[in-house]
Amino acid sequence: MAVDRLGPAAIKLAGVMARVAGWRPGEFWAATPADVRTVLAGWAEADSTACLDSAALAAMMERFPDG
Fold it and tell me: CA-CA-CA-CA torsion for 12, 53, 64, 2, nearest 10 degrees?
């Protein structure tokens, strides 16, 4: 993969955030991982135990690495 290309996981996450939060590319790239986690956690059902915590985010990052 060329160094000037984004990892597939980053591209997918940018697309998810565009659909879920309505973020434009500049808003996505200016956001922190905590911002993304907060928005995605808000989409989890209130009574669900399947929220996105630090461990879940780390697992996703390991499963879908950028490089």
Answer: 70
